[in-house]
Design a protein that fits this description.
Number of strands: 0
Main location: nucleus
Shape: globular
Keywords: Nucleus, Transport
Helix content: over 70%
Structural class: mainly alpha
Number of helices: 65
Organism: Tetradesmus obliquus
Largest sheet: none
Distance between the termini: 80 Å
Protein name: Importin N-terminal domain-containing protein
Radius of gyration: 38 Å
Family: Belongs to the importin beta family.
Strand content: under 5%
Length: 1278
């Protein structure tokens, strides 16, 4: 435990290594440390047991061979299991004992019950009141049981041999024996757990009544007082206290046990008595009055404190019965429903209820919500009709009365179906009891009182919260937002959730009760603050459950009748323009809730109302009351998001129409970016191509967008003035973040309409940046809050630059914030950089895309980029930014960082290659050898050799990183063809090593699409390299220095493992190359335009590169000729590329004709990439001449054209496909230079046949009737 870094860091590293490797003897040594009570201090022993707990693990997501506990020797496991319980029941430290209990829980996740069957019985025996252990240690045993039960919830049974002998396998043991053993273990598991129910129930029955009646345990008070204090109960109290602690622990154990022994057939034996005891105890604990003789005041307060915590455990236990045994528990629901309704809602006044611990109030409400949501207590379940097995009664009657012979199997099946039906009928009868009780709760006679109590005691604001509203308005808003989160577990959101459950289950009765209560409170006026708070709570409930009350109170009517007038009439007072003081807080409560309703239900407003609501909400941002102003910000934000929703619909429709029009006009493919995965856009494109007009929804969205944008821009100046005025009044970072989020959304929605207001908006940004910089320089700055503020500011800048483009980039005030913010966020020495760098790189990329040249300030950021490249965790975005610098002719600025870029690219490509091989389950030569051995064993057993199974799915981020690296290398190679081959030689080697890796399954064996995408990206880069420098191939396939070192080490130690020293097999490299080059994806076959374009380009560059290698003699002809199938594949790719010459020319014309603004979105980087492609040698390549030269070289090596044709015929196989049958004459034409003419003739003949078929079809139709064959006829025939 040294504080010296030089000593501590190596020691921590050694411990982590031993922990990860589960080194033999490590756990035993840790247990030895723990047991030295007198010689070793508590912190060290605590650390030892924590490390032991982590070493055992319990992580079931690991494979069996990588789980730490699975690799501990069996003898050591046994000694650890024995030591854990002994130490836990003897250690003087409760902290150490707690961790020992958690260690036991982790071990049970693996070893219970097969290797540790008696652990639960030992703990139960130790916890028994008659055991020889002191109460302190008995409590430890009970608490350890709870942890074990909780851990067993995630236990999984695995097929591992009991004796982990080397080489033992599932095949050796036999599937039948494995299945039998697993079934036996599951059965033992259930039995051992069920045996725990009765002892725990007995413990609850022994200690809970003794706690409830302290006078009954007074005889043991003196004896147990010291034990109570030692057990953590404090000095106050007597015997009742130790009984209370035991009762709490026993109830906890029962609660965690119930899910493990869930049985639809019934509750565990003795549960009725337990539930009766819990029911009575819950009543008494809720009242907070002990039975028997009164306690002294100080002791009574201690009793009530423990009683409150025990009540929480009792409630959780009752809920666990409902969750785990819903149907058997249904008969008790009426009793507990009344208990919880009275306790949570009706019995106590609001002040008493609010004085309880929040957790206690949450549990009271949670039971009611769970009962309402339980599917077995719903009418659709209990009223479902039972169905007689089809023909069952007739068959049985024929068998029993008429003596008709019926197969015994059929009779047994009918009997089984009848028994199942009887069980279902019994379950419905049980559920009906609970359903009727719930229906009674939601009846007209009771529901009004329940709704009113729920609103008053759980939803309404308290006077303490109003004090916070006045003294700390930003803190109040923050607490309210926490309550609105999805994980909120406090009384108010749980109370609202219960009301929503009631509305969903009770329907109109509950909704009408809520509306009636609201109307009554409205009629009462604002004279009483409590009545106003209740009214505000009702408004919140209506907004939260609006979908359930909309048919009674449409929001548009409510806004017109009350909310609009409320907001308008009080606005001057809140703005301070009426010459009066600020309205009182009660008025502010209603005003803020009205604004919240506008945001929550604003989609229901009609046009005039939406315009009115927008104006009023914007105006309220200037309110003097900060809570009202911030609630107005939220309302405007939600209304602005509606504009973005309409924009998204119309943008999608516009893209689909543009693509469809281009397809209809030119017959070309769809616009790049419109994918088959976007089903809605594809459907819209097809509809547009057929001339279908916009549907009503699209027309309505277009109209809404026009007038809403007019409203937004009409008072944009007022909005920005109020927002930035409010920004100066705020003190908390979170509040500023909320305002900047609104500015960001408004900027995105307004787009170019924001330009007239750019000056006002930009003028406020430096102030925000300076304030954040000042806060960041303070010693007590909250890094997380500042990161969120800088993130929001980054989003504003990104939207401004993305929408206003040059106007924003040229604005000096925008520059004064953007460049320093980018520098701050990408500086890895800043504490916020870790969370800001992703958004900073996005903003950086946007700034590059909107200008035709790189700004000097962005050149200055390259120093930070070099550090990001060295770290290597943001490579995808970083490589794209570097590519943009090159495309925008700023390559000179990158020259000082060329070595860093080369190293980053090499490291990324190697890491991606490793991930690719990992995803195939074959990342080493040893793994490949193991896979081959497995296949051989399966073949010897007469089983088919299965391909390697993926070890881990390749993450999308890895694929993106690989493709980003390939794209950057490709651009560098095109711009600097003389320098890049040497500069990036390690990159090219890493790519070639993956493409030709012996351990990589070929695509025909089922490579994932993401792996193929990476291989395609690498193939295109290597193909471009070979087109310019074919002599580079041998160096790329030779072993790298990194590969030679392990091989030399293996040779020195005599292992003989030198497979890596041979580098990459040229044959394997060519096979993989051809398979990738010839692959045709489903999207291409389906006609997805950009995929077809990519496929044609990939085939063209791959075939051209191989041809160049063959023609130059770098690729020996023997590599292709010795495998005729390989030769046939190459020839097939060549012919296909030649056949696609016209389509490839159409692709080029399509790309050259893309509109800069409409189709390239005015992206200068994308435009530069397309401009670079105009000079691409692949475009202008004469494929016929290139392929003719390669085939001539192959024919010469094969002994002439006849020899080549013979090899092609052999490569086609015994049953060649029609395409293979046509291949030989086409290759012959290629050799003689007549392939182009032959392909043109074939196309002309095919067109002539098509015209003849059309004419014949038209003649036949005309003979049958007068049919108009217009331009649509050909399309219909096609």
């Amino acid at each position: 435990m040294s504080h010296a870094t030089a000593e501590r860091v190596p020691a921590e590293a050694a411990i982590r290594a031993w922990e990860t490797d589960a080194a033999p003897g490590f756990l035993h040594s840790l247990m030895r440390i723990v047991q030295e009570h007198s010689a070793i201090d508590e912190p060290t022993r605590l650390l030892a047991v924590v490390v032991a707990k982590n070493t055992v693990g319990g992580n079931w997501r690991k494979t069996l061979g990588t789980r730490e506990w699975s690799r501990v020797p069996e003898e050591e496991k046994g000694s650890v299991r024995n030591a854990v319980l002994q130490l836990m029941l003897s250690d003087p430290s409760d902290r150490v004992a707690l961790q020992l209990g958690l260690l036991a829980s982790n071990i049970c996740a693996f070893d219970f019950p097969s290797r540790w069957p008696d652990v639960l019985s030992h703990l139960l025996a130790a916890a028994d009141w008659a055991s020889p252990f002191a109460p302190q240690f008995k409590l430890r045993a009970l608490r350890a049981l709870k942890h074990i039960f909780k851990g067993l919830l995630t236990k999984r049974f695995v097929a591992e041999p009991l004796t982990q002998q080397p080489g033992a396998s599932a095949a050796a043991l036999g599937m039948a024996s494995i299945t039998s053993r697993l079934q036996a273990e599951r059965q033992l598991y259930k039995e051992k757990l069920k045996e725990c129910a009765a002892p725990l129930q007995q413990l609850v029955a022994a200690h809970l009544p003794a706690f409830l009646n302290p006078s009954s345990s007074s005889a043991t008070a003196a004896a147990d007082a010291a034990a109570a204090a030692a057990a953590g109960g404090g000095a106050a109290g007597g015997g009742w206290q130790i009984h209370g602690l035991f009762a709490k622990a026993a109830v906890n154990g029962t609660t965690e046990l119930l899910p493990l022994i869930a049985d639809p057939a019934g509750l565990p034996e003795g549960t009725r008595q337990l539930l009766e005891l819990l029911h009575g105890a819950a009543n008494q604990l809720m009242a907070g009055v002990p039975a028997g003789a009164p306690l002294p005041p100080a002791e009574l307060n201690a009793w009530r404190d423990l009683a409150g915590r025990l009540h929480e455990r009792v409630c959780k236990c009752i809920i666990a019965h409902l969750d785990s045994h819903p149907l058997p528990f249904a008969e008790y629901v009426p009793y507990f429903l009344k208990l919880f309704v009275d306790a949570a809602l009706l019995q106590l006044d609001a002040a008493t209820l609010r004085a309880m611990r929040p957790k206690r109030r949450v549990l009271l409400v949670r039971f009611l919500a769970k009962a309402l949501l339980c599917p077995y207590y719903r009418p659709e379940y209990v009223e479902a009709q039972a169905f007689e097995p089809m023909g069952g009664s007739l068959i049985e009657a024929l068998h029993s009365k008429a003596g008709v012979a019926v197969a015994p199997e059929l009779l047994a099946r009918l009997q089984q179906q009848r028994q199942q039906q009887q069980q279902q009928d019994g379950g419905r009868a049980q559920g009906r009891v609970a359903a009727e009780a719930l229906q009674q709760l939601l009846s007209k006679e009771q529901v009004s009182a329940v709704v009113e109590a729920l609103v008053l005691k759980y939803v309404a604001l308290t006077h303490e919260e109003l004090e916070e509203w006045s003294s700390d308005p930003e803190g109040y808003i923050r607490s309210i937002e926490v309550e609105s989160g999805p994980d909120a577990d406090t009384p108010r959101p749980v109370g609202v959730g219960l009301l929503l459950c009631m509305l969903e289950r009770g329907g109109e009765e509950v909704a009408q009760a809520l509306i009636n209560l609201t109307a009554r409170l409205q009629a009462a006026g604002e004279g009483s603050p409590d009545m106003v708070l209740m009214r505000e709570a009702c408004y919140r409930c209506i907004g939260e459950g609006y979908s359930h009350v909309s048919n009674i109170v449409p929001f548009s009517q409510w806004y017109a009748s009350e909310l609009s007038g409320l907001l308008r009439s009080r606005l001057p007072a809140f703005l301070g323009t009426a010459g009066e003081g600020s309205p009182d807080i009660i008025a502010a409560v209603l005003q803020a809730r009205a604004l919240w309703l506008v945001g929550a239900c604003g989609t229901e407003l009609e046009r005039e109302q939406w315009v009115d609501a927008w104006g009023l909400s914007v105006a309220h941002i200037g309110a003097r009351d900060l809570v009202v102003a911030l609630q107005a910000v939220q309302a405007v934000l939600l209304l602005a998001i509606q504009i973005l929703d309409d924009q998204a619909i119309l943008d999608q429709v516009a893209a689909a129409k543009l693509a469809a029009s281009k397809k209809k006009g030119t017959g070309a493919a769809q616009l790049p970016g419109l994918t088959v995965g976007n089903a809605a856009a594809v459907d819209a494109a097809l509809s547009a191509a057929e001339g279908v007009q916009d549907d009503e929804a699209v027309t309505a969205a277009r109209e809404r967008l026009e007038w809403r944008l007019a409203v937004l821009t009409g008072n944009l100046e007022q909005l920005l003035a109020h927002v930035f005025g409010l920004l100066g009044r705020l003190s908390e970072v979170e509040s500023s973040v909320r305002l900047l989020q609104l500015v960001s959304v408004v900027a995105e929605a307004a787009g170019e309409r924001l330009q007239p207001h750019l000056g006002a908006l930009a003028a406020a940004l430096p102030g925000v940046w300076q304030a954040s910089t000042k806060q960041a320089s303070g010693g007590n700055a909250d890094t997380g809050a500042l990161a969120r503020l800088h993130s929001a500011l980054m989003a504003v800048i990104t939207h401004l630059v993305g929408k206003l483009r040059h106007a924003a980039m040229a604005n000096e005030q925008v520059q004064a914030v953007m460049y320093p913010l980018l520098g701050y966020a990408t500086n890895l020495h800043n504490p916020e950089a870790e969370v800001l760098v992703e958004e900073a790189l996005k903003c950086w990329g946007v700034a590059l895309a909107v200008e035709p040249a790189v700004a000097p300030q962005l050149v200055g950021l390259l120093g930070n980029m070099s550090h990001l490249l060295k770290r290597g965790t943001d490579n995808s975005a970083a490589f794209q930014i570097l590519e943009a610098y090159l495309l925008l002719q700023a390559g000179q600025a990158l020259q000082p960082y060329s070595e860093v870029i080369s190293a980053a690219l090499t490291a990324a490509i190697r890491q991606v290659s490793k991930a690719v091989l990992d995803s195939c389950g074959l990342n080493t030569a040893a793994a490949a050898a193991a896979h081959q051995q497995q296949q051989q064993q399966q073949q010897q057993q007469g089983l088919p050799g299965a391909p390697a199974r993926p070890g881990a799915l390749l993450a999308s981020e890895v694929t993106q990183e690989g493709l980003a690296a390939a794209a950057l290398v490709d651009v560098m190679l095109q711009l600097y063809p003389a320098d890049v081959p040497q500069l990036l030689l390690p990159c090219f080697q890493a790519m070639a090593q993956l493409v030709g890796n012996e351990a990589l399954p070929l695509p025909r064996q089922g490579l994932p699409v993401k792996v193929l995408n990476v291989l395609e990206g690498f193939l295109e880069v290597l193909a471009r390299l070979f087109l310019g420098a074919p002599s580079a191939l041998p160096a790329l396939l030779a072993p790298t220095p990194e590969q030679q070192q392990p091989a030399a080490a293996a040779a020195d130690d005599g292992s003989g493992s030198s497979s890596s020293s041979a580098g990459v097999s040229l044959h394997r490299f060519v096979d993989c190359w051809l398979l990738i080059a010839s692959a045709t994806f489903l999207e291409e076959l389906l006609g997805v335009g950009h995929m077809a374009m990519l496929g044609r380009f990939r085939r063209r560059i791959a075939a051209a590169a191989l041809s160049r290698l063959i023609s130059e003699g770098v690729l020996p002809a023997s590599v292709l000729l010795e495998q005729p199938a390989r030769l046939a594949r190459l020839a097939g790719v060549m012919v296909k590329v030649c056949d696609e010459v016209d389509k490839f020319a159409g692709d080029i014309a399509h790309l050259d004709g893309l509109h800069f603004e409409q189709e390239l979105n005015s992206d200068f980087v994308l435009a530069a990439r397309l401009n670079l492609s105009k000079g691409d040698a692949v475009r202008h390549l004469d494929v016929f001449a290139t392929f003719q030269a390669a085939m001539a070289a192959l024919a010469a090596a094969a002994g002439g054209e006849a020899g080549l044709m013979a090899l092609l015929q052999a490569g086609a196989g015994n049953s060649p496909s029609p395409a293979m049958q046509e291949l030989q004459p086409l290759v012959s034409s290629l050799l003689h230079g007549t392939l182009a003419a032959q392909l043109e003739a074939q196309k002309a003949a095919a067109e002539q046949q098509r015209q003849q078929r059309l004419a014949a079809a038209a003649a036949a139709a005309a003979a049958d009737g007068d049919v108009d064959w217009g331009s649509g006829g050909e399309e219909a025939m096609m």
